[in-house]
Amino acid sequence: MEIIRLEEKIAAGYRLGYDEALELMRTTSPGELYELAHRLRTRYQGKRIDTCSIMNARSGRCSEDCKWCAQSKFHKTDIDVYPLVGETEAVQEAAHNASKGVGRFSLVTSGRTLTDAETDRVCAIYRRIGREVPIRLCASLGLLTREQLVKLRESGVEHYHCNMETAPSYFSKLCSTHTPEEKIRTIEWAKEAGLKICSGGIIGMGESAEQRIEFAVTLQKIGAVSIPVNVLNPIPGTPLADVAPLTDTEVLVTMAMMRIINPEANIRLAGGRNMIKHLEEKALYCGISASIVGDLLTTTGSDIDTDKAMFRRCGFEV
């Protein structure tokens, strides 16, 4: 496939489907893919880096059996377990991140969904953050109903996060308690409510290279404007504890293809950054335009100031 011609088509609005993207990955050198992804990132995102932070607002005892997750009640892991976070604590965490220059803040809850009463509590938290803290609001609260998502949007939330996690053809190998179709239904309801979609997933869970392309095309089809690319951090006590890691080239090619298939989206460094610390600056060249900063859900993340220094070193505006 002639790279320059393809780049021109993408710039004119063309988007790759599965077969064409798979052919591109198979017939193009990694270096050429990195360069194309870099040019597309520069075209659509410039040198801006979009930063966000997440707060584990309810931890553990999750009813879902996702094989990668430390918070599932089906796995024996050493994590903190606590109920829905209090309003003051959440506002303080949002304020701390805003003081560090982080652009977005999201509450993330374990479990399949929230009750209506819990949704009302979360919406009250978001309304207070909106009044008191200069930071944009996102949410990751499971498979909410259409009505709950409308309430969330009315409370000031702009982006709703619901990871597809992996290729639909591979999902049932990793989780049996909900389906990709249920996730897509939630995503469609969120869009109807006026929320923009943040959806990505985890690479390195035993899926094939072809399934990583399927995954990227699925995210294109659902209209994700933010795509967090997590690299599996195998957690003792989970069924994926002993999965072999992807090679450096597999990680970088995946990130580049994610950009090529979703040229206008923010492709975001996310969980598992400790697994690819030596690759992060290369990843920033290969199409990455965003990052989660600070601590993650059950693991320690990167220090915000250290991240900002790296972004600037790589020529980004934070």
Automatic annotation (TrEMBL):
Q: Which residues form the Radical SAM core domain?
A: 44-273
- Which of UniProt's keywords are assigned here? 2Fe-2S, 4Fe-4S, Biotin biosynthesis, Iron, Iron-sulfur, Metal-binding, S-adenosyl-L-methionine, Transferase
Show the InterPro entries listed in the entry: Aldolase_TIM (IPR013785), BATS_dom (IPR010722), Biotin_synth/BioAB (IPR002684), Biotin_synthase (IPR024177), Elp3/MiaA/NifB-like_rSAM (IPR006638), rSAM (IPR007197), rSAM_sf (IPR058240)
Q: Give the record's pathway.
A: Cofactor biosynthesis; biotin biosynthesis; biotin from 7,8-diaminononanoate: step 2/2
Which positions bind [4Fe-4S] cluster?
A: 62, 66, 69
Q: Which GO terms describe its biological process?
A: biotin biosynthetic process
- Example GO molecular function term? biotin synthase activity
What EC number is given for this enzyme? Answer: 2.8.1.6
**For this protein, what does the record note about how its cofactor is bound?**
Binds 1 [2Fe-2S] cluster. The cluster is coordinated with 3 cysteines and 1 arginine. Binds 1 [4Fe-4S] cluster. The cluster is coordinated with 3 cysteines and an exchangeable S-adenosyl-L-methionine.
Cofactor names from the entry are: [2Fe-2S] cluster; [4Fe-4S] cluster
Give the catalysed reaction(s), semicolon-separated.
(4R,5S)-dethiobiotin + (sulfur carrier)-SH + 2 reduced [2Fe-2S]-[ferredoxin] + 2 S-adenosyl-L-methionine = (sulfur carrier)-H + biotin + 2 5'-deoxyadenosine + 2 L-methionine + 2 oxidized [2Fe-2S]-[ferredoxin]
Q: Which residues bind [2Fe-2S] cluster?
A: 106, 138, 198, 268
The annotated subunit structure for this chain is: Homodimer.
So what family is this one in? Belongs to the radical SAM superfamily. Biotin synthase family.
Role according to the record: Catalyzes the conversion of dethiobiotin (DTB) to biotin by the insertion of a sulfur atom into dethiobiotin via a radical-based mechanism.
What name does UniProt use for this protein?
Biotin synthase
